[in-house]
Amino acid sequence: MNATEIALLGLTCFLTSSLTAMIGFGGGTILIGVMLLFLPPAAAIPFHGLVQLISNGWRVTLFRHHIDWRIAWRFALLLPFGVSIGLWFLQGLSAAMIQILIGLFVLFALVSRQLKGLRQKDLPLWAFIPLGLVVGVLNMMVGVVAPLLGVLVVRREMVKEAVIGTMGFLATSGHLVKVAAFMLAGFSFRPYLPALAVMVPAVMLGGVTGKWLLGHFNENIFRVLFQLVLLFLSMKLIIWEGLLKLWP
Length: 248
Hints:
About 75% of the residues lie in helices and about 0% in strands. By secondary structure, the chain is an all-alpha fold. The chain has one domain. α3 packs across α10. The longest helix has 28 residues. It is globular, with a radius of gyration of 17 Å. The relative contact order is 0.21.
């Protein structure tokens, strides 16, 4: 990557990290789209995982007092096994088709939560154990599964800071195991050290900026914005990342 590309990625990191610290997700989906302009998928997915590990790890530090640990430890329990399965089990499947399925699930969950009988239903805590396994598998194939987590993690009693902190921990766990798996498989991050020197300060500054902006949202505005971003990302997964790539 040349200096212009690195500068563009640094700016993107700042903006996407700010968005994620405000909403809880969304930034990673945008960032990997920009990375794919300059890198092949085989390099973009592990490099994106490392950048997101740093970004979300910093978000966990900023929101550490708000993390819902009932969800966090259950999610992390089977996550490494899911990543191990994903390394070899899904290599022959279509990433575009998986993106479509995730997008459809997010869309279905958004719509179902507006139905009278399901509006007050939260995902049972035990369900986060198998969810960690599933996310580990999917994360190795498509790189970004935050929209799937976003629609499942939010609970009625959660304040916005708890949503951001808990989402940050789940994302950090996923990216930590994923980066370790890619390194064990022989991927080297050494060629990307110059880019990291720009992108790491950018994501940290973005995290601080996003947390400051979050403090100026009330809970109702946050919930509406959260659902709007989920709706946008679900349509992006279905149409842009899925159908258009499958179209001959």
